[in-house]
Amino acid sequence: MKSVNYISNLDLNQKTGGWSGVNVSLHGMLSKRFDLNSIGPIDPGSDYQAKVLSKLRRKSGFPGSFHFFSPRRLKKISSIVAEKADPGADYDFFHGSTPWILFDSPRPYFVYVDTCFSTYVDVYHDRAGFDRKDLERIFDTESNWLSRASGVFFGTQWALEQVVNDYTISRANLKVVGAAGSMTVPKLDRYQAGINLLFIAFDFEQKGGRICADAFRKVKNKFPETQLTIVGGRPNAEILDRPGVNYEGFLSKSIPADFKRLEELYATAFALIHPTSSDIQPLVISEAGYFGCPSMAPASFGIPELIEDGVTGFLMALPLNADEFANRIMELATNKARYREMRHAVRANAVANQTWHAVGDRIAREMAHSSGNDAFGANG
Questions:
Q1: End-to-end distance of the chain based on CA atoms, in angstroms?
Q2: Which CATH fold would you assign to the domain 196-352?
Q3: Is the pLDDT of residue 16 over 80?
Q4: CATH homologous superfamily for 3-180+355-371?
């Protein structure tokens, strides 16, 4: 069995969802196929000097720097990796890319990313708020680092294309292996009845919570039994006070009771509503699919690769509006036969293609191909 340094900036005991859930699941999947030396979490504190200088620039009316990836902090990260990595390992495997871009690995290395730093900035920030040269420093360094990797694995084709468009980089070592949720796949679909809408997001506003709440209100006017459950960021009092709205707060997958509650919510949900305006590859869509719950989300980011429009859910055209979401919900509520077919289709697709077992098989095959070893990373 090949030995691999698994390098991450996140704690393996942290599994709240999203990127932390990917870290835990990715590590678990790789540990079945390789002899892992886990290194992390490598997450040194912010570069205080760079942070202060950035704030001073902003107060003076100039763009700030992305101090979290300052040269000083990146060099510190690189030195920690060099110190902790097993020099006898066959390969390095990095969870994410940007923190590691100053580490010049003496071994062939592989990377799993949701997106590159350039796309991350465009999705979640405003480039105008940062010094152009400082961003270009990070972009150029990351582009060179990714180019030297034996394999860079993406969750979606959309993310891969963003890298090709943003960076001067060859496609040769870039591969799409898919993404997966961090829930246990149930043995069957336990949904019984009810129009129980589900909204899960850390940031209620950014992920379109208001559109979801307004769509719910329109559906409830026609179907009084409709319920909306919100998990994550807290909405305002006006939304919380609406009849039929249930707020669960934040549920951590690391806490057994919270994990069980999340399973119950997925299992009883009629549809996951995700009108996001900032995203990469929302894994809640895959997780809902394990339970047979279809999703409704915008036809943007990597989402079209997670939802087959009209078959496993609905892709919503931009600009998003509550009426369209409400119409799709009511369309399924009044056509039970089609709804049953959709539940069957979304579960079949998610279980076959969007689990870490499936992703792990693809990664192992790609690593074997890059290494010229057919026995490399045999499935455990």
A1: 10
A2: Rossmann fold (3.40.50)
A3: no
A4: Glycogen Phosphorylase B; (3.40.50.2000)
The single-letter code of the amino acid at 173 is N
Question: Quick check: 374 pLDDT over 50?
Answer: no
pLDDT score for 373: 61
The reply to whether 196-352 shares the fold of 3-180+355-371 is yes
- Quick: pLDDT tens for 293-343: 999 999 999 999 999 999 999 999 999 999 999 999 999 999 999 999 999
State the CB neighbour count (10 A cutoff) for residue 30: 25
pTM score, two decimals? 0.92
pLDDT at 378: 46
For residue 347, give the 3-state DSSP assignment. Answer: helix
- 4, 91 contact by CB (below 8 A): yes
Domain residue ranges of the chain, discontinuous segments joined by +? 3-180+355-371, 196-352
| Sign of the four-CA dihedral 5, 91, 120, 302 | negative
Q: Look at phi and psi of residue 96 and say left if phi exceeds 0, alpha if psi is from -120 to 50, else beta.
A: left
Give, in degrees to the nearest 5, the angle at Cα 333 between 306 and 326. Answer: 70
- The span from the CA of 326 to the CA of 313, in Å, is 14
Q: What confidence score (pLDDT) does residue 66 get?
A: 93
